[in-house]
Specification:
This protein is mostly helical and about 425 residues long. Helices cover about 70% and strands about 0% of the residues. The protein has 18 helices and two strands. Helix 3 crosses helix 14 and helix 7 packs across helix 13. It is globular, with a radius of gyration of 22 Å.
Length: about 425
Amino acid sequence: MATLRDSFRGNIRSFGMVIALVALIVFFQWRTGGNVLTPSNAMNIIINNSHVLIMTMGMLMVIVIGHIDLSVGSVAATVGIVVALVIQNWHWNWILAVLLGLAVGFAVGSWQGFWLAKVGIPGFITTLAGMMFFRGLNQYIGHSKTIPVPEGIQQMGSGYLPEWGPNTGMNNSTLLLGIIAIVAIVFLEFRKRARLARIHADVPPMYVSISKLVLFGVVIGYLVHLFGTGRPGTSFPIPGVILVVLALIYSFVTSRTTIGRHVYAVGGNRAAAALSGVNTKGTYFFVMLNMSVLAALAGILFIGRMRASGPADGLNWELDVIAAVFIGGAAVSGGVGTVMGSIIGGLVMAVLNNGLQLMGTGAASQQMIKGLVLLAAVAFDVYNKTQGKPSITGWLTRKKGSAGSQDAEGGSVAEAGPVNPAEPTATA
């Protein structure tokens, strides 16, 4: 069992957040009489929170380099109104309008990246100014009106994978997506084993790989059944597909590419990164640019879900996104965090919101509970690091009597940081 336990130590904090997510689902499933794990509710969770989960990937990189972006909600709202206006007033095709919206996000990110990277104004101040400016711009060019969007964008923001083929008892697109996911996981696991054997590294026993594959297979199979057996015309949501694709891309970028390593290097120690040849200004510029493009995409998905762009779009989005990233394991001091951890943190917030709503909890109480959850998550992490103590998950999985177990699993930065040895870590 020690070997099986060791296989989950690469990112023990994120694994702990998975446990917290499962615990929340079980609790609300019990308290709501089984209304959480229903096809329609699961689809609603994905559709209603996809825009926040997408932005967590960009916000993670911003926080890793030691900054905060407060403008994401306002940027998303501005892009949403631009897209809606060019379709309504100029009769643009919705695909061209979406491309224009992403281009606007690119321009906004370049603007904010310039002030941070070239002028040296801290990201907090730069994006605070951006939050005020783009919130006003949204209301100025839209005249504080609600503007509808066409069917194409509505499908992008709230549509479902289509049905096709023979009657299998569930949506065939969702079934195919699940099969592809399982095949990919099996392929990657055995490719990893082959790579370890090729370089004469320690290869885990076969039962470890089989156990992991069975676990993932059961989870994916249940999700396929959950999303594929809803009411006719529904399936796994299209914004969920966009989220999954982006999560895979950004996980690869942050852990396997040069720019990803540079982001963690700059966040861990900017001076050392510069001495190592990292283009710190270029890294800052890229991260801010990337964040605004993702905010633009989130704004487009949101107006698709709402079927219109309005003056209140994007309000307080930055708070939900930042909370998700910190709950997912990012360090307040920067240099630490993972894409999957941030998405899991976002799902924790999404399930918390959904469960409280199903229980009939008032909006004021929901806000207070979310604030306490965020404070508790960060306080617990900071306390463990300052005291040199392990997290709850680390304490449950550490080897008894091992002198180094606390350093390896405890409140160290390695809990939440990248597992790639080429990525530097930082002390909080």
